[in-house]
Specification:
alpha+beta, 5-stranded antiparallel sheet, 3-stranded mixed sheet, 4 helices, 29% helix, 39% strand, globular
Length: 171
């Protein structure tokens, strides 16, 4: 389907409204992490993953859904819409994510084996050139961005408790 067919216009309208969200005052601190629109027989499943500093609450997801629904009202196409927080195991989808979350625990899955494995866990050190740098056991592991199949943060309860303890000490 190209952009001139009804379904293409619907999908384009969805993408436009979602990508405009962070430019609207109400959602300026919201980051769109991922989107998808998948056709299932007669309806389309729309999915949006969002994040912001401190996390995303249900009320924010509801306001985002209302904004998207209002924009899609003009289309007769049946659809389902799911808005979700990126969560504690937030996906890392672009090079700037690796920089932003440097110092955090992460899991990176590659399409090719590196050092005999396709799944790598460690501490993110950011991006150097075209490589994601993970530190594990005191040594750096460069992983080419081109072979990253998926990557996400790994929630560490102990580290979270340590950060909370440090914040309390500063008060």
């Amino acid at each position: 389907m190209d952009g001139t067919e009804p379904q293409g216009l619907f999908t384009e309208a969805f993408k436009r409204v979602v990508h405009a969200l962070p430019h609207q005052p109400e959602f300026r601190d919201v980051e769109v992490v991922a989107t998808s629109a998948q056709r299932h027989r007669r309806d389309t499943a729309l999915h949006v993953t969002v994040d912001r500093e401190g996390g995303v609450d249900v009320a924010t997801c509801e306001r985002i859904a209302a904004r998207i629904n209002a924009a899609l009202d003009a289309f007769p196409d049946p659809y389902t819409l799911e808005i979700e927080s990126a969560g504690l195991d937030r996906p890392l989808t672009k090079p700037s994510d690796y920089e932003r979350f440097a110092g955090r625990a992460a899991k990176v899955v590659t399409t090719l084996a590196i050092g005999g494995a396709k799944t790598h866990r460690g501490t993110l050190e950011g991006v150097r050139g075209t490589n994601v740098i993970l530190t594990r056991d005191g040594s750096e592991l460069p992983i080419p961005l081109a072979v990253v199949k998926s990557a996400n943060l790994e929630y560490d309860v102990r580290a979270d408790l340590q950060r909370a303890k440090q914040r309390e000490k500063r008060k």
